[in-house]
Amino acid sequence: MPSVSMTVNGKAVSGNVEERTLLVQFLREHLRLTGTHVGCDTSQCGACVVHVDGKSVKSCTLLALALEGANVLTIEGLAEPNGPLHPMQEAFRQNHGLQCGYCTPGMIMSAIDIVRRKGHELDERTIREELDGNICRCTGYHNIVKSIAAGAKAMAQGGAPRQAAE
Amino acid sequence: MYNFTFHRPTTVRQAAGLLAKNPDAKLLAGGHSLIPVMKQRLAQPSALIDLAKVEGLHGVELKGRSVVVGAMTTHSDVANSPIMQQALPGLAAVPAAIGDPQVRHMGTIGGSIANNDPNADYPAACLGLGATIITNKRKIAADDFFTGMFSTALEDGEIITKVSFPIAKKAAYEKFKHPASGFALVGVFVSKRGPEIRVAVTGAGANGVFRVKSFEEALKRRFAAKSLEGMTIPATGMNSDIHASAEYRAHLVGVLARRAVAKATA
User: Fold this and answer.
1) Is pLDDT at A135 greater than 70 in this prediction?
2) Bridge-partner residues for B134, per DSSP?
3) Which residues of B touch A110 (CB under 8 A)?
4) B251: helix, coil or strand?
5) Do A133 and B99 touch (CB under 8 A)?
6) Residue where one domain finishes, among candidates A36, A59, A77
7) SS3 (DSSP) at A122
8) What residues are paired with B172 via a beta bridge?
9) In what helix (H) or strand (E) does residue B38 lie, and over which residues does it extend?
């Protein structure tokens, strides 16, 4: 089997994988980073969103071998173990931005990428438009949108997010 | 997904050599059409030749009176290119409306037009602007390139390297998105470059993207939405499926063409 090497959450990793191994399989099954989820497996639901070289992508539609040398960030890499949460994670916690939680890692990784592209002051319309590629089957979008608006602001301050105003 | 061998050439020449050696191989661009169909086992290539590391296939540049886009340039890079936004804002809006942000970070112009999905947006933009598709072997006019549903003029071993778009003074795209898939139920690209008027339609035709000569003639008299008032196209040859009937698609062609012209002349 061919080998692949990349950086995941700041650490150099490598492994031998079948050619058809998807990035999400490499993350979950080889590296045991199970925070990245598989929802639809058809690049629609966004539960598998991670960052590759700083951009949000769907890890169910990328081949692990195609990421030789890439820099990958998953939900596990956002905060130090036992340290404070990333401001976007904290915003989801404070605003109850999840119900079952299955879509949450993808939502948070997409949210951080929205902030990168659109800045820290996000209106509801922008957030909803930009969440086109993430589906919450609990349909908890209202609080997800609130969480992202609060998290985006908190990322600017570099501190803990405030509860979004009702 | 069945397994395959995986290759990562760094030059177009190497990629072409690998294609010649592996007759069942497929080129991998962004992979956001190919990998899903491989998962469904609708495609079973023996080898994938990844173009990601091939030099010279990325970027948007101005060349005389054209904008030239590298085949591996992603939808988000085309949409956000200052050169494209300045020279051809009507074209920059096309990739901005494809898929979702994550898909736009991976999907490429070359992959989209080589696949020629009958509901894809880029084929309409290429035909609607009279683009030239540049391969490792030749230059192909958009009018000759799209030969039918999922089929193109590309020959075995031929690799798209660039797409050249002539700068049109007026150009716009209007798309009626399927609400679930985001693909064009119908999309219409219109342009006016000097005396040349083009109206190209995706999503509607049973044979893929096509031009509407009757609309183009009407717009030659005056390039205004009013020139198309009351005009429609016959439903014969239109796609009909669970999403929309042939009649509905034909109706949308007229509506979206008027909206696109209005947008281009705004």
Assistant:
1) yes
2) B139, B162
3) 101-102
4) helix
5) yes
6) A77
7) coil
8) B190
9) helix B34-39
What is the Cα–Cα distance from B266 to B256, expressed in whole angstroms?
A: 15
Determine how many CB atoms are found less than 10 A away from the CB of residue B41.
9
Residue with tokens 């109706």, as numbered in its chain: B251
Residues near A157 by beta carbon (within 8 Å), at least 6 away in sequence? A87
Model pLDDT for residues B2-18, shown as the tens digit of each residue: 999 999 999 999 999 99
B17 and chain A in contact, CB less than 8 A: no
- Percent of chain A, pLDDT > 70? 95
Helix (H, G, I), strand (E, B) or coil at B236: coil
Among chain B residues, the shortest Cα distance to A130 is held by B101
Q: What is the tens place of the pLDDT at every residue in B168-185? A: 999 999 999 998 888 999
CA angle B238/B243/B245 to nearest 5° reads: 40
Beta bridge partners of A7: A12, A71
Q: Which of B2, B32, B48 sits opposite A61 (nearest CB)?
A: B32
Q: Is B31 on the interface with A (CB under 8 A)?
A: yes
Grade residue A164 by pLDDT with cuts at 50, 70 and 90: very low
B135-146 mean pLDDT: 98
> Could you tell me if B232 and B253 are in contact, meaning their C-beta atoms sit under 8 angstroms apart?
yes
The string of pLDDT tens digits covering residues A81-127 is 889 999 999 999 999 999 999 999 999 999 999 999 999 999 999 99
Query: Is B182 within 8 Å of chain A by CB?
Result: yes
The pLDDT assigned to B118 comes to 94
d(CA B112, CA B55): 19
- Per the domain annotation, does A46 fall within a domain? yes
ipTM, 2 dp: 0.94
Fold annotation for B170-265: Enolase-like; domain 1 (3.30.390)
Within chain B, all domains assigned CATH 3.30.43.10 are found at 1-55
Q: Which helix (H) or strand (E) holds B112?
A: helix B109-115
Tell me if chain A has a CB within 8 Å of the CB of B48.
yes
Give the gyration radius of chain B's Cα atoms: 18
Listed residue (B98, B22, B9, B73) closest to A66, CA to CA? B9
Of A2, A62, A130, the CB nearest to B101: A130
What does the pLDDT average to over B232-236? 95
Interface A–B counts its CB contacts (< 8 A) at: 75
Query: What is the CATH classification number for the domain harbouring A138?
Result: 1.10.150.120
Q: Whole-number mean pLDDT of chain B? A: 97
CA distance A94 to chain B (A): 26
Is the Cβ of B224 closer than 8 Å to some Cβ of chain A? no
Fold of B1-55: 3.30.43
